Task: inverse folding
């Protein structure tokens, strides 16, 4: 469970990455010498880009989630200039990097990671939270080889029997009902998991094109099933 922390209790080290609102730093908690990732988000950038509700929503949703296959938020803080989110430090890199290096995964590898993402989704859906932005870049690998789902920037609480109509997600992974504005809910996460499994096995998503509109329209005309997908992987 996440709780308010004192940033003075952390010893900041190298920068792990940068984003629209700030950066993520590798930090050691002085009380137990454990390592965490601390996200620094500039308040003036959040206000300038009209993302106050967006950031508050992400923090609120992450505080409700605790699962072995999710990058869990452990604390939060704020001062006059920044909002801080303290998360688990996952040092194995993005699944995207490993997949591009390998070009494609074996059936067993695809099932291994697919099951972990599915378990993370099931946990989130049990709390009526939909993720809506699965892609290889949003899966981090632990040193022991297991994976963790991250980036809840597009996540949303969706009550049973209701739908949401926000157009969001990654073009290659976006579900038809999202693009067609028919209203969507938990099933869109399972669609993205299917796309991820396909990409892990074949090396690219089933619907992809340099032109986004062609990418969006391709699933309306179907997809040619790749010969590299075996029956035992299904």
Result:
């Amino acid at each position: 469970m996440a709780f308010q922390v004192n940033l003075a209790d952390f010893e900041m080290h190298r920068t792990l990455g940068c984003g629209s609102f700030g950066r993520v730093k590798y930090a050691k908690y002085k009380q137990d010498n454990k390592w965490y990732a601390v996200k620094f988000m500039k308040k003036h950038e959040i206000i300038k880009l009209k993302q106050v509700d967006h950031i508050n929503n992400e923090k609120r949703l992450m505080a409700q989630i605790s699962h072995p296959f999710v990058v869990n938020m452990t604390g939060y803080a704020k001062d006059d200039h920044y909002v801080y989110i303290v998360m688990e430090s996952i040092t194995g890199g993005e699944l995207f990097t490993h997949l591009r290096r390998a070009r494609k995964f074996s059936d067993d590898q695809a099932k291994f990671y697919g099951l972990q993402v599915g378990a993370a989704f099931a946990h989130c859906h049990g709390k009526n939270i939909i993720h809506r932005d699965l892609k290889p870049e949003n899966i981090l690998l632990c040193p022991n080889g297991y994976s963790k789902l991250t980036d809840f920037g597009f996540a949303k609480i969706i009550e049973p029997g209701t739908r949401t109509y926000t157009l969001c997600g990654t073009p290659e992974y976006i579900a038809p009902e999202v693009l067609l504005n028919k209203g969507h809910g938990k099933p869109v996460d399972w669609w993205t998991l299917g796309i991820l499994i396909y990409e892990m096995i074949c090396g690219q998503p089933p619907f992809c094109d340099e032109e986004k509109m062609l990418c969006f329209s391709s699933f309306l005309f179907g997809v040619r099933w790749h010969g590299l997908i075996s029956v035992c992987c299904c």
The mean pLDDT is 89. Residues 95-233 form a domain with the Transferase(Phosphotransferase); domain 1 fold (CATH 1.10.510.10).
